[in-house]
Structure of ABC-2 type transporter transmembrane domain-containing protein:
Amino acid sequence: MKDILVTRVIRWKKQVLSVLFWLLFPLIATSLFISFTEKIQQDTQVPIGIVLGEETPLALGVLDAIEQSPLVEVTQLTEDEALIQLEKHALDSVFIIHQGYEEQIRKGNRTNLITSYRSDRSLAYSPVKEMVVSFVQQETIRSKAAYVVMDLETKYKREIQRDWEEIIQKSKEVQAEQDLLHTTFQFQGATQPKNENPLFTWNVWGIWAVFTLLSTLLLLDWVIKENSSNIRSRFTFTKIRYHHYVVKNLLFYLGLFIIVDGFTLLFFYHYFSTQINMFVLFTFRVMITLLAFIIALLSKNVYLFYCGAFAFTLFITVISGVFLPVNGFIQEITWLQYVNPLHQFLSEEVTFIWLVGSIILLCLWYFRKEKVDA
């Protein structure tokens, strides 16, 4: 094994940067992708100004509801400050909650509660306005419903009659328990922070798995290069058989991959607060390495192998739904789950079917060739 390591290191001297790049590519690419999407999310928030004419519970409730939206970045200002910032185009729009807002809501009045301002550069004014209006309408409808309930209690002479505040609080509790639409954005495996309402779920380990598939395929191109007749003929004059040489090199690469995966596990846990079962990660790494090795054995041309590696990775990316949701599509075509080597890993399950299949194919290649050479 020592001779194998020395030989491999000698071959790496001319391509050390390439080997290091592809070894760290899954970690680097995943981190850059997550950081880039985070930056986009922050930059795409619409800056708006809110002016509170009164600090009553209902007015503060609307302010809190607007602040909870991940689509806007809210700044609370005075009216003069807000209009100045709007003129400077530092704000996309301004919304002023007038004095007497809560009183008008209690009366069921929905007119002249909020005044809005926009400039000639207010690109997102319409959707933000509709969002604010929806919050106000929600409160007015809730208030009207409370009065209807109070009238019904009076009409049917209930012994215990609830007041307006109790009915409003109960309606909010029911709404929270039976939310009709709730979408989140967080890293899979991470704990969602309080008072945050993210938009979508990124599977950090799923993204890493896609990049790992590509990098593993490209790193095992040595199988094709060293499977040429010129190189294989040299093993006739050595003590080691070609198949022993290849398998020992494969084990060396597998050990190297596992070390890098361990570092990746610690890195993702520290920076993204996400973790995965180590045995699930180990079985996936063994499977993906054996699969890439078998694909390389079946290839004769390095250039075609590179093209096939990118095409195969793209196909697996599409059917995996890591970047684009394909849940409904997968449910209609269930066989795609079985041809996807990443499926069990993405479901945080031990990779079994593809691992066993890869081991069987490796054994068939190894022992069949040994019999021929004998």
Summary: The two ends are 23 Å apart (CA to CA).
